[in-house]
Design a protein that fits this description.
The protein contains 2 helices and 5 strands, in the order E-E-H-H-E-E-E. A hairpin with a 3-residue loop joins strand 4 and strand 5. Helix content is 15%, strand content 34%. The radius of gyration is 15 Å and the shape is globular. The chain has 111 residues and is α+β, with helices and mostly antiparallel strands.
Amino acid sequence: KPAKFQAMRAVRLAARGFRNLADFELDLPPAGGVFLGPNGHGKTSLLEALYYPVLFRSFRAAADQDVACWDGLGFGITLGIDGDGRQATGDRRSSRQAGRSLVADHLIPDR
């Protein structure tokens, strides 16, 4: 019997200290979005911030310390998702001093 997958949609993205991006909070529209801008202005970094809480790593194969702002102590990414009327929030933080943490709906999942 094939596995049943539930569609989920990202509804909110927030990042602090991530790559070259200014700290931000962004509501993602249901219809989707298009990111336009010159080279080197953060379009790929924005997509990487969206992927990071899903993959728990960079899709560029960078180490956690490589995705933090150049002079920053670490970074944080929060992704809000909605699926079948249920909402959840995942929070990923990495600090040069304290290490990494993952929180899903205010709980630390078993690894």
